Amino acid sequence: MPRTLRPILALTMGDPVGVGAEVVARTVVDPEIRETCHPLVIGNPEILRRAAGWCHLQLQLHEVSDPSQGFDGPDGSVPIYDPAADLSESLVQLPVGKVSEVAGDASVRYVIAAIDLAITARVDGIVTAPINKEAINAAGHKFAGHTELLASRTGVREAAMMLVTGALRVIHVTTHVAFARVPSLVTPDRLDEVINLFHTTLRALGIQAPRIAVAGLNPHAGEHGLFGNEDSEVIAPAIGRASGQGIDVSGPWPPDTVFARAARGQFDGVVAMYHDQGHIAVKMLGFDEGVNVSLGLPIVRTSVDHGTAFDIAGQGIARKTSMVEATRLAIQLGRARHR
After folding, report:
1. Of the N and C termini of the chain, which has fewer Cβ atoms inside 10 Å?
2. 35 has pLDDT over 50
């Protein structure tokens, strides 16, 4: 089957002492996933086997020292590549569910290896299991999360985050910054970039004429300046510029109603001004099913929309839904890029 129909995807294992290995193991044995893509796991084979045992899964792995060695192993086994093999002995001895700088270092190495494979077109996209921000910073990797690491490694000035759950699609103007900084970061250039990027992505997902709603920054979208001027002086002009380019975009709408309207089908996507404005809506509607997509990168990247869940790690009860949905979306986006 051509790669355009069955893309090669690198699935990173995430923090080795979180639930990442469990959700990855559940995903790569899913029959639908195996039929629609070639999965390549980036992570530690012993930890993945251990996680498969916790989940009572029959998972056959074959270890590769070079990802170009192949993506379909003997007897349907799943290839796994470990760019942090020198940490293996330390990783398997770590207590599960505890923040560790060693685990943080390994998780960043997994992501970097996957990014490099995608940049060189040896894989068609990457799907990431959760990392722990405290752990990666303790290991000396000064990133606020995946999005910032991806932007740095791919040489992009700033990526954008899109969340998807069911019919609700949300893109963020700002993400991991202190709330006090948000108004100064909602700039004309950033708004133009995000609205255009959102329109392009929604079309790639098969929506020919996307209807985009823009949430206001302030309560009631500023109420004509009563609660702030950013909505009328910065956001509304950006909407006008996008409309002038032929994009079906409207707003700024009051943030307390626009997400519900989109979830009911009135809009195909919502532009959120800051992290929690968009995340709360998505996680209320689909906590276990949400998918995180990085836009504005030269590669396809999707991710689960949940954390490392240290409190349940090692119990074999972590749900695969978000990881499976992230993989499905990466397959769709990978095919769109080929087209």
Report:
1. C
2. yes
Q: Name the phi and psi angles at 44, rounded to 5.
A: -95, 120
1-159+297-339 is a CATH 3.40.309.10 domain: no
Say if 1-159+297-339 and 163-288 have the same CATH topology.
yes
Which candidate, 89, 32, 54, 337, places its Cα nearest to that of 204?
Answer: 337
Say what the pTM is: 0.86
Bridge partners of 274, per DSSP, are none
Q: What is the mean pLDDT of residues 272-293?
A: 89
Question: How many Cα atoms sit within 13 Å of 133 on the Cβ side?
Answer: 9
Q: Return the CATH fold of 163-288.
A: Isopropylmalate Dehydrogenase (3.40.718)
pLDDT band at 329 (very low <50, low <70, confident <90, very high): very high
Phi–psi pair at 301, nearest 5 degrees: -140, 125
What confidence score (pLDDT) does residue 157 get? Answer: 82
Token output for 80: 């796994």
